[in-house]
Design a protein that fits this description.
The complex is a heterotrimer of chains A (367), B (323) and C (492). Chain A is of the alpha/beta class and 367 residues long. Chain A folds into two domains: 168 residues, Rossmann fold, CATH 3.40.50.2300; 135 residues, 3-Layer(aba) Sandwich (Rossmann fold), CATH 3.40.50. In chain A, helix 9 links the parallel strand 10 and strand 11. In chain A, helix 8 crosses helix 9. Helices cover 75% and strands 2% of the residues of chain B. Chain B has 323 residues and is an all-alpha fold. In chain B, 57% of the residues are buried. In chain B, a hairpin with a 2-residue loop joins strand 2 and strand 3. Chain C is an alpha/beta fold and 492 residues long. Chain C has a six-stranded mixed beta sheet with strand order 4-7-8-1-9-10, sandwiched between helices. In chain C, strand 5 and strand 6 form a beta hairpin. Chain C is globular and about 65 Å long. The two termini of chain C are 28 Å apart. The relative contact order of chain C is 0.11. Classes of the chains: A alpha/beta (367), B mainly alpha (323), C alpha/beta (492). At the A-B interface, helix 1, strand 9, helix 8 and helix 9 of A face helix 2, helix 3, helix 4, helix 5 and strand 1 of B.
């Protein structure tokens, strides 16, 4: 009797759950009838927007499979694993994943992938899972610089090379991992700081919306910005510097508070675009005009933000190019040749201002 | 009492009295102190404009916290509220084509269904609340992300936007609705048979069962209410932010709500509920956040301050029940 | 061996707390072996050799019996707990207390009686010179009580002083040498136990004259038999539940008090709960007023059956609710319109029952947990009675309440029966069971082993019936007694 009642309960729960799922997906109808959500990775394959190498460090820093201590393999014959760190609801992540997937397909390479949804423990598990699944080479977009040691150690023990992209990890190149491809975050921040100086020639109070505390990208973007301001724009004063976790809703909340405590603020530097969008929402709600009363500068170059730049709502936006596919697979190919791959590939990021934003949008160069 | 009468020593008495007072009125006093300090630092803090900003930010947490308080009263906990917020936000853009009100109704129904699942697991299948709602917390968010196609969608509908941004008579629409919800919850707790059963079940489930109370029905209802309130919070968040992002909406809301409940003086052991205290708890935590951000205190310090407050609140609660 | 008695609220517990360092006295002194002492904490008192056993068992239910016994002073070897030795010693110690269990078992898997024994054994092990026992026998079976008394006498012979608090007068006369009677926070008499007879003792506690007590009778039940009329209001047939009930049938007719006799674990409470629909059954049926009810508590209440549960704290009161809310808890459906509690109706009910049962509370708003045990019990009785029942199942209605409240509760039961209610009475106190019941159904090991009617309703016949009942030979079969009892009895 107890058993049957338990079974009945279980089936009730299952039925109710299924009903919920069916009911919600059954006859949805979104507001824009123009074909639903456009996958933001659409511009991933655009050749004009492809990553360009800006610098590769000193010429001696070259890594091959022999110096790394890995076995020679042909990429076409093995499985490559890709570990994405964060949810693809962020356009940057969506485009990055799309680019890697597209390039693997174009080269006929078998790719498996996992998404850790901003959970570094999950990413450790993801990497270990892919190794267990037979991945012989890994491309990892690390969640942070310290937390992945266990997975990296396991890969190293099994002589599985790892290429890190978009964020760095601690360790030595060509030993713990092959190398790094990505943006110069401090450099991006420097450009943003110079833009801020241009946007506010008469100086004024400014606020910084920081990324997640302890994140190395956030730190580099804060340091790069504040150093440049201190060095060349003495009339700009950072009066508020608060974290908003790279999140739009949090960016909005924090900006609402800052506007209360510092109503005289003239400029906002957001360390990514989603926070910038949140800040714009907050500025509008406070009855001020972004682009006129308050200048907003962001980083990442996502479509929504670049549209705002074109419309004069945002002053400028520094791109973080997420189209890692071609460069990443090129680096792996070089790694398995005698030529070797540089261990520190810094990409040249676009810089969107009112002058070029509309053009970039029209050309589909924005993700 | 006669000559052998004994009383606890005066020192003990005083401490108990202080603890009791802190339990009952500490939150309100703390709110007053925070407002005073902030106004002293910057007189503009005491302005309608600033209060409106704080109200917009606190209302979603407050609404979720009320549902949480009801669940906690039954000796339960609802970790799925953050995920329900995500679900509700995911549903809105999906059905906006049918008009804002229908999409809101569907979002609320979705919240109720999630609550129903939690309630059935807890009441009928006897799964521990923390486990049942933890499962939902993961599952419902995943489902919400799938529904929404894994990317944030902007929601520009005017009705929903107004809910999250506009005011009636100078006070945000959200706040009016929240006031109604608070009154309804307070009324239900104090005056209805349901409220009475809720506390009785949380206080002594065995006795309630033997007194013939519909324990299962009450439990299921409580989780449904919690789901519904979380869904309402989700609608407000979409309105305020102007977009729906199931991956990030409602993250950590379960913790904020539990904090508000605890700071408000509702014991985690169940059997007692403080509706106004919960409101005050949410407002207090909001003011703490506002104080820290507006005075540009570093995030790491802010987290420590919040931790200290929670420990203080729990200590006060323990001090009382330990008597 | 010193007895400490008094009604609830007489100041016994407070006195104990002063002696053990929980409270500090405002005035006066505590002397231990002639020296004035002041304990800052219960721990200090314990270190000085005063150990206390409270009514509720204060042990760690999930830990093993052995760990509980040695908690804080485990035998060690190489710095680690020597669990082999601990278990061996635990087994030896507990054998002296008549508890034959595997010391590795978690404590909570033991019966309440066995748990109490472990608590006593633990208290005595801590090199005690004074042992204070606060109602140690309230959850023990008669046989366990005997064992305990054996232990107590042995302790006394070893020169350990024992303060014994109990409501059971029989026990006091059995083991105690001297007695202190307290009333209203003051000592009213200190004397040799043998110098005070029962009636004197009761009158001292109550502060009434001997004549009063006599006319009220020892239990508060009138001797007259009740007018039993009509068809059974409750008919339980062949109730079956694995390990607990093996075909119990009981009928209760209007105006009749049916006693349910038997030892601890014989299935008395289970029978009551089964009738109430609070215990899932493997078989059997319950008819109320001739129709079979749905097997839920709510359905039973609607049909007119109510129950006063055995464990007041765990299953009865809702501690943080008020007296008022506790009284009307089960009656909510009757006083609710459109989900709202009708306050006028509620107050009317609460008023009436607080007066009728003479519930002493500062106001109906007082939290029920602040009331004395007797008044809590009356609140629960009010909860039952305001449902306007046809049948009342009373499981230990007077356990742990003071003599005055006890007599009142018994009087009410009597009155109810006279008004035509059917009553099922479960009581471990023979006097109460015998004097209160018109008929006694005797249970043993989940089975009806006899029924006493008319003049046969007496202490002697009940005990003979219990003694005569054949032992259960097949321990593995369904209907065998609870595992704990089994294990303990096997070693007898």
């Amino acid at each position: 009797m107890a058993l049957t009642s338990k079974r009945r309960t279980a089936s009730v729960v299952v039925v109710a759950g299924t009903a919920l799922a069916l009911a919600l997906t059954g006859c949805s109808k979104s507001a824009d009838d123009s074909g639903g959500s456009s996958p933001t990775g659409g511009a991933a394959g655009n050749s004009a927007a492809a990553q360009q190498v800006q610098s590769t460090g000193s010429s001696g820093d070259s890594c091959t499979y022999t110096t790394y201590g890995a076995d020679k393999i042909d990429l076409k014959n093995v499985t490559v694993g890709f570990s994405q760190s964060e949810s693809t609801s962020n356009p940057f992540r969506a485009t990055e994943t799309q680019s890697i997937t597209d390039e693997a397909k174009a080269q006929g390479i078998k790719l498996i992938q996992r998404n850790a949804n901003a959970n570094v423990q999950q990413q450790n598990t993801d990497i270990q899972d892919m190794i267990a699944q037979g991945a012989k080479v890994l491309i990892v977009a690390p969640e942070n610089s310290d937390g992945l040691a266990p997975a990296f150690a396991q890969a190293k023990a099994k002589k599985i090379p790892i290429l890190t992209i978009d964020r760095t990890v601690n360790g030595s190149a060509c030993s713990d991992f092959i190398g790094f491809i990505g943006s110069d975050f401090a450099g991006q921040a420097k450009i943003a700081a110079q833009d801020m100086a241009k946007a506010l020639p008469d100086g004024g109070n400014i606020a910084i919306l920081q990324g997640t505390s302890g994140n190395n990208v956030a730190e580099a973007r804060t340091d790069g910005f504040t150093k440049e301001i201190a060095a060349s724009s003495p009339n700009l004063k950072v009066v508020a510097s608060q974290t908003a976790n790279f999140d739009q809703a949090t960016g909005q909340k924090v900006m609402e508070q800052i506007l209360q405590s510092n109503p005289d603020i003239k400029g906002v530097y957001a360390e990514n675009d989603t926070m910038a969008l949140g800040a714009i929402q907050a500025i509008k709600a406070a009855g001020k005009t972004p682009g006129k009363d308050i200048q907003v500068i962001g980083i990442d170059g996502t479509e929504d933000a670049v549209k705002d730049v074109a419309a004069g709502v945002m002053f400028s936006d520094v791109e973080t190019n997420p189209r890692f596919g071609p460069l990443a697979f090129q680096a792996l190919t070089d790694f398995y040749s005698d030529k070797g791959t540089p261990t520190n590939i810094i990409i040249a990021d676009h810089h969107f201002t009112k002058d070029n934003a509309q053009e970039a949008l029209d050309n589909g160069d924005v993700y | 009492m006669t000559d052998v009468a004994v009383r606890p020593t005066p020192a003990v008495l005083d401490r108990n009295r202080v603890v009791t007072w802190l339990q009952d009125y500490g939150v309100y006093a703390a709110i007053a102190v925070l407002i005073a300090i902030n106004t002293a630092i910057k007189p503009s803090f005491f302005s309608m404009d600033n209060f409106r900003v704080q109200a917009f930010q606190v209302v979603p947490v407050l609404i979720v916290a009320l549902g949480m308080a009801l669940v906690i009263t039954t000796e339960g906990i609802d970790l799925s509220v953050g995920a329900v917020i995500a679900l509700s936000s995911a549903v809105i853009p999906l059905y906006l084509g049918y008009g804002p009100w229908l999409s809101i109704v569907i979002a609320l129904v979705a919240g109720c269904v999630s609550g129903l699942l939690a309630g059935l697991m807890v009441a009928v299948a006897n799964v521990q609340p923390i486990i049942a709602t933890l499962a939902l917390m993961i599952g419902v968010r995943g489902f919400a992300v799938i529904l929404n196609g894994a990317s944030a969608k902007s929601v520009t509908d005017e009705t929903i936007g107004a809910l999250g941004l506009d005011s009636w008579f100078g006070i945000p629409q959200e706040v009016w609705i929240a006031v109604v919800i608070v009154l309804v919850v307070a009324f239900v707790v104090r005056r209805t048979a349901f409220g009475r059963r809720l506390t009785a079940i949380g206080d002594n489930r065995a006795a309630s069962a033997l007194a013939g109370l519909p324990v299962k029905r009450v439990l299921v209802a409580v989780y449904i209410i919690s789901g519904l309130l979380a869904a309402i919070a989700g609608v407000f968040l979409v309105g305020h932010g102007g977009y729906a992002d199931p991956s990030n909406y409602g993250l950590n809301y379960e913790l904020s709500a539990i904090t508000a409940v605890v700071v408000g003086g509702t014991p985690l052991t169940g059997g007692r509920i403080k509706v106004l205290g919960t409101v005050a708890g949410a407002v207090f935590m909001q003011l703490v956040a506002a104080t820290l951000i507006q005075n540009n205190v570093k995030n790491s310090y802010s987290q420590m301050v919040e931790a200290v407050i929670i420990i203080g609140a729990v200590y006060a609660a323990r001090g009382r029940s330990g008597r | 061996m010193h007895a400490l008695i008094g009604e609830n609220g007489a100041g016994k517990s407070t006195l104990i707390k002063v002696m053990t360092g929980v409270y500090e006295p405002d005035e006066g002194e505590v002397r231990l072996r002639g020296e004035e002492v002041a304990f800052a904490s219960p721990l200090a008192a314990q270190e000085a050799g005063i150990s206390t056993i409270y009514q509720e068992v204060n042990l760690v239910p999930m830990m093993s019996v052995a760990r509980n016994l040695f908690l804080g002073r485990e035998p060690r070897r190489y710095g680690l707990i020597d669990s082999t030795r601990m278990k061996r010693e635990a087994r030896d110690i507990l054998r002296d207390y008549g508890v034959h269990v595997n010391p590795a078992r978690p404590l909570r898997s033991l019966g309440l009686g066995a748990q109490q024994m472990v608590a006593i054994a633990r208290a005595v092990q801590i090199d005690a010179r004074v042992v204070i026992m606060d109602e140690p026998t309230s959850s023990l079976e008669a046989r366990e009580v005997e064992t305990l008394f054996g232990v107590i006498r042995r302790l006394r012979d070893q020169g350990i002083a024992i303060v014994y608090v109990s409501h059971r007068l029989d026990e006091l006369y059995q083991v105690c040498d001297r007695v202190t009677v307290m009333r209203d926070g003051a000592v009213v008499r200190v004397d040799d136990m043998s110098a005070v007879d029962r009636i004197t003792l009761v009158s001292l506690m109550l502060g009434r004259e001997i004549g009063d007590v006599r006319t009220h009778g020892a239990t508060g039940f009138a001797d007259a038999e009740h007018q039993v009329k009509g068809a059974p209001v409750v008919a339980a047939r062949n109730l079956q539940r694995r390990h607990q009930l093996d075909g119990v049938s009981v009928e209760i007719r209007p105006g009749e008090v049916v006693g349910l006799g038997g030892l601890l674990g014989s299935g008395r409470s289970e029978t009551a709960k089964a009738i109430m629909g609070a215990l899932p059954l493997d078989g059997g049926s319950v008819e109320v007023g001739g129709t079979t009810t749905r097997r839920t508590v709510a359905a039973s209440i609607r049909a007119g059956v109510v129950m006063l549960p055995e464990d007041r704290k765990a299953e009865g009161i809702v501690p943080s609710l008020s007296v008022r809310e506790n009284i009307v808890l089960a009656a909510l459906p009757r006083i609710t319109r459109a989900g709202l509690v009708d306050r006028a109706k509620q107050d009317e009910i609460v008023d009436y029952f607080m007066k009728r049962l003479r519930i002493k509370a500062s106001s109906p708003d007082q939290r029920v947990s602040e009331l004395s045990g007797g008044n809590q019990q009356k609140v629960l009785l009010a909860r039952c009675l305001c449902l306007d029942p046809k049948a009342l199942l009373l499981d230990e209605p007077t356990r742990g309440i003071d003599v005055g409240a006890k007599a009142e509760v018994q009087g009410v039961i009597n009155e109810l029966a006279e008004q035509g209610l059917g009553v099922l009475l479960i009581s471990s106190e023979l006097d109460e069971l015998i004097e209160g019941s018109d008929r006694v159904v005797v249970l043993k090991d989940g089975r009806v082993v006899g029924e006493l009617t008319g003049d046969d309703v007496s202490q002697d016949t009940l005990m003979t019936t219990l003694a005569e009942a054949p032992p259960e030979p097949d321990l593995g079969a369904p209907g065998a007694p609870e595992p704990d009892t089994t294990e303990e009895e096997r070693h007898d």
